[in-house]
Fold this sequence. Notes:
A: 4-stranded antiparallel β-sheet; B: alpha/beta; MetI-like fold; 3 domains; 8-stranded mixed β-sheet; 13 strands; 11% strand; ABC_transporter-like_ATP-bd (chain A); transport (chain A); nucleotide-binding (chain A); ATP-binding cassette domain-containing protein (chain A)
Amino acid sequence: MRELTFEDVTVRFGSRRLGTVAVDGVNLVVPAGQVVGLVGESGSGKSTLARAAVGLAPLTAGRILLDGRPVQRDKLQMIFQDPYSALDPRMSIGDSIAEPMPRKMPGRRAEVARLLELVGLAADRAGARPDELSGGQRQRVALARALAGRPEVIVADEITSALDVSIQGAVLNVVKDLQRRMRLTMLFISHNLAVVRYVSDIVAVMRQGRIVEYGPVEQVLTDPRHEYTRELLEAVPRPGVPLGN
Amino acid sequence: MPVASHASKRWIGALRSPLGITAAVLLVAVLVLAVVAPLIWQGRADAVQSAEILQGPSSAHPVGTDLLGRDIFARVLVATRLSVGLALLATAIGVTTGLLLGTAPVLLGRRAGRWIGALINIAVAFPALLLALFFAVIFGVGAKGAVLAIGFATAPGFARLTQTMTATVSSRDFIAAARVAGIGRMRILARHVLPNIAEPLVVSATMAAGTALLSFASLSFLGLGVQAPSYDWGRLLGEGLAQIYVHPAGALAAGIAVVLAAMAFNLSGEAVARAIGLRSTHAGKRAETATDHQIAQSEPEPDASDQPLLAVQNLQVSFPTASGEVTPVRGVSLTVRKGEAIGIVGESGSGKSLTALAIAQLIERPGQVRADRLDFLGADLREGVEQSKNELRRLLGTSLSMVFQDPMTSLNPTQRVGRQLAEVVREHQGADRRTAWRRAVDRLSAVRIPGAERRARQLPHEFSGGMRQRAMIGMGVMANPKLIIADEPTTALDVTVQRQVLQLLANIRAAEDVGLLFISHDVTVVGQVCDRVLVMYAGRVVEDLPTEALLHDARHPYTRALVAAVPDMTTDRDRPLAVIPGRPPDPHDLPTGCPYAPRCPLASDQCRQEDPALTTYAAGRRVACWHADLAPAAVPDNRTASDETNGLVQGDPVASENTDDQIAAPLGGERP
C-alpha cells in the first residue's frame, strides 16, 4: 500500500519558446489503496501525466513521489489503451506476462498460471498468441502482465475505450475486484464519466494541463464546483433525454 | 501449436506457387553451382590451349573459347563461386552495418539517435553505385575494395529501412510496457523489436544480394573489381565484350549467368514477401457454413402509404476468402422515411457498418451486395439493374451523404477545407467556383464553425477533432441531402464535443427534414438521437423497436444484455457490472440455430436447432427470438428506480460473475 504524489509536475514538449505545455504544475495525491479517476477531454494532459508517472515522459519540473520517496520503477505498472498494440504479437501471452518478473525467479510458470486465473483466463492459454484473443481478453493479459511486476501502484490509461461495451463491463469488473482484493493504489484515466464513477473513489478533473477539481466521487459528480466539471457532466449522454440546443 | 502449423502451411503454399518454385529452383541451382563448379570444372577452365584461341561454339566448347583458348562455359560456371560469394559478403557487410546504424537510436537513446539518423539521411542521398565507385577508389582497386565499397553502399538504404521500421515498432504500447517493466534496451531490441521487423528485413536483404551481384559485375566489368588472374562474371563479361564482333556467345554466357543469379535472389525475395503477405488467409473453414444460414426473411415490411426514403429488403453482403465465401450481412431489411432517424446498434463484427456501406454503394469488389430490394428515393440501387450509371452517381452524390468515424482520414490533408466542401456542388451541380465557395462558407457556419470565412481557408490539421467532424457533416449537407448515413460519428470524440455533434445532426434533421441512419455501438447515444432502433447480431437484425422501449421494454435477450452492460451515472457502484458472456460468432463458422444461443440465458433446444425469423409482435416492433416473452424477466436491466419510466423491471438483478470467455451462463441472474 503506497501513496502516489505528484508535486508541481510540469511536462513540456519541444523548446521553451515553441513547445507546448502538456502538464502544467499539477499537484495530485493518489491515496494508498484508493482509486483516483482522472477525467478530462483529449489534449487535457491526462495521458501525459500517466506516462510521466511511469517514466515514459520526462518531467520538465516537479517531482513524483511514492510514500514521500522518489518513485522506484518496479513499484509502478501501467495498462494501456489499445489492447491490439499493448502485446507483442510475436510472443506468447505467457512470455509477455512473465517479462516483468525477475529473470531467475523460481516457479515463473506457476506464477503466470496464477495470474491468468486471477484475471479470469484459463491457465492453459499461456501458450496462446495475442492474435488468438479478443480485445477484452488481451486487455486482461495486459492487466496480468502489470500485476506480474508486483506493483503497488497501477496506472490505467483509457483501458476500456477501445473495447465494445459488452466487453468493457467484464474488464471493469476484473479491475475493480482485483483492486479491492489486493488493495492496489490506482490512477484510472478515462474520458467516460460513467466508467470513472463506477471504478473510482476520488475524481480529479483535468483541463489544459491543470487539475481544476478534486474530491470524493459522489461529491464531485453530484455537486460539481467548477464550471468545466458541470459542462462535462451535462454532456454525458442520457438515453431518452432530449439533447437540447 | 496452431500458429506454427499455420505459418508452415503458409510457407508450403508459397513454395507451391509458380513464383515460389521458380525462385527456389534457381536459388538452389546457383548455390549448388557455387559450391560444386570449381571442384569439377576448375582444371578445364584454366587449361590454356593455344591451338583453340577465340573459337566459336562447338561440341567441345559450348560457347567457344577466349583469347588464351580457355573454355568460356567452364569459366562462367567456375566464376559462380567468386561472383556469388563476393556478392553475399558485400551484402552481409551492408546488412550488418545497416542494422547497427538503424537500431542505434533504440540503444543509444534520443539524442545520439538523432545524430545517427542525420548521418543515415545524408548517406541515403548518395546514389549507391557512385558511392561504390568512390569507395573503390579509397579502398584501392581489387576484390577487397569492391566488397567493402558495395557493402557500404548497401548500408544506408538498409539502415534507413531498419530505422523506420524500428521507430514504428517502438511507438507501440508493448515497447512502452516493457520499458515500464524495467527491461533493458538491449533486451527490448532483441526480444521485441527485431522479431517484429525480421520478415521485411530478410526480404530486402535477399533483394539486396541480387543488387550486390549486379553491382559487383558492373565494377568488375569496369576493371574496378576482381583483378586477374582471378575472374568473376563481370570480368568475363568485360573480356567477352572485346570479342563480341568475333563471337558474341562468349560475352552473352557471362551476361546470362549474371541475370539468372540476380533473378534467383530477387525472385526469392519476392516469394518470401508474398508468403509473409499471405497473412489474412483464414484456415480450414468451408464455404457452406456461411451459405447454409442464408434464410430468406419472409417477414413483409410493414408498408406505409407514402414512399419511403430508403427501402431495403433482404440485404446480403458477402466476401470471397481463401476458405470460401463469407457473408457478414445476412438478410437485413429496413426502411427509413423522410425526416426519420433510425439507429443501428451492435457489437463490432455484427455487420452494422457493412450494412451502411452497402446502402451507400461503397462496398468494393470482390465484395458482393445482393438484395431483394434496395430503393433510394424510388431508384433501384441494385447492381445489374438497367440504369444510367451517371444518373445514379449524381443521385447518390447529391441526395445521400455519409459521415465516418474518423474525420481526419475522411478529409484530404493537403486541401483547404472550404475547397473540399465546394467540390461537392461543383462536381454534382455544376456550380461555378464563387457560388460553390459561398455555399461552403454558408454550410460551415450552419454547422457552427466560428469564423467560417477564415476557417474555410484553413487546412484540416488546423481544425480540432470536433470541428473536423462538424466540417464533415457540413460537407454532407452541401447538396441538400435527403438521407445522412452516420457511421459511429462520435466514437472518436470527447463527451462535450460528442454532444455538440449529436445536437448538430438533430438540428439538421429537424430543419431540413433529412432522414438519418445512425450507426453506433453505444445504445445510450443511439437512444438520444433516434426514433427507432435496429439491433444487429451476427449479420442480421434481431430486434426492431421504438427508442422509448429500448431501455426497459426490449424483448430480445441480446438487446437487454447490451443495454444492461453500459454503466451510466446511476449504476450501483458496489455491484459488478452486467456482462455478456462469450463472444460474437465468427462469420466463417456460424452455429446452427439462433447465433446468439451460445451466449443466451434463455437458450433451449429449439434455439440451438432453428434460427428464429424476425417477426412482428406489436405495431412497429419486431423481434427474432423464440422466447421474446420471457426476456424481460430473465435479463433485468441495471437502471435504478428513479430512471424507470414504465415499471417493467422485474426481479432482483443478481451480481454476475461472468467473463467474456465463458459460455452461456445466466446473464444478469434468473427470476427469483
